Amino acid sequence: MPIIIPQSLPARDVLVNENIFVMNDCRAMHQDIRPLRIAILNLMPDKATTETQLLRILSNFPLQITIDLISTETYKCQHTPEDHLQSFYRTFSDIKNEKYDGMIITGAPVEKLRFGDVLYWEEFKEIMDYTVTHVTSTFHICWAAQAALYHHYGIHNYLLPEKLSGIFRHQVNNKKCELLRGSDDEFFVPHSRHTEVRREEIAKVPELEILSESDQAGIYLIASRDGKQVFASGHSEYETDTLKKEYLRDLARGGKVRIPQNYFPDDDPAREPVIKWKSHANLLFSNWLNYYVYQVTPYDLYA
What we know:
Elements: E1 3-4, H1 10-17, E2 22-23, H2 25-29, E3 36-41, H3 47-58, E4 65-70, H4 82-88, E5 89-90, H5 92-95, E6 100-105, H6 121-134, E7 135-141, H7 143-153, E8 158-172, E9 186-196, H8 199-202, E10 208-214, E11 218-224, E12 229-232, H9 242-252, H10 278-294
Parallel strand pairs: 1-2, 1-4, 3-4, 3-6, 4-5, 6-7, 7-12
Antiparallel strand pairs: 8-9, 8-10, 10-11, 11-12
Helix pairs in contact: 1-3
């Protein structure tokens, strides 16, 4: 079934060329189905790339999904054209009285900053509080996961000795968990971050459960026991060449840069990376939409 996005959104052409089913607003209005309302708070600088990554994954769900793209208003992105933001994005002021079945909050390249030093931190805190009362379930990615764990539960993040970048093997901690239902016992996930959260702090919070972790990459997947908050430290939504682009970008900036681990065959950047994580990514987001959103969200969000 399709995702419903504006006809002129640039990601649409990319997805259509991949034979992914997308639908415009007009056609969706004439079908007697209530689509899931999903908001994506996009904190990444290159918003168009992140839009495409997430929309590609959400398109695998068997029900209609209406997407609202959200950006911060206290900080204006310098890497996305203003006309793109004006055409396709809403702000928190636009949506704060609305309700959503689900929300995805992306990572952001601000990990080395203290949370309070992030320019949009006060606005972000307001949005995180909003998700508790206005969103059935919220999926936080990378920095957003760490920020939300700190805001909601007081769990700190810690700077790593060097950037963690690569594809890492993970195990399932709870085989009865709906979020990982149907998963292999082991699977791969990309990581790209400078900070981590620690098991001992999470274990002190009875409302949280660690669902998956990695011997190399540490804690990966955490969820509140009521399913309203999901936290992923990795980037299962990444495309094949995303880590390569980040590696080349970091090299261009100078300094010592470690090659992404377990990514290039024989650690040779001239060779094409092998995809090992897409099946996990599709299963993870489909399970989240099914068990944490669709199965529990009310038909009338405003009842």
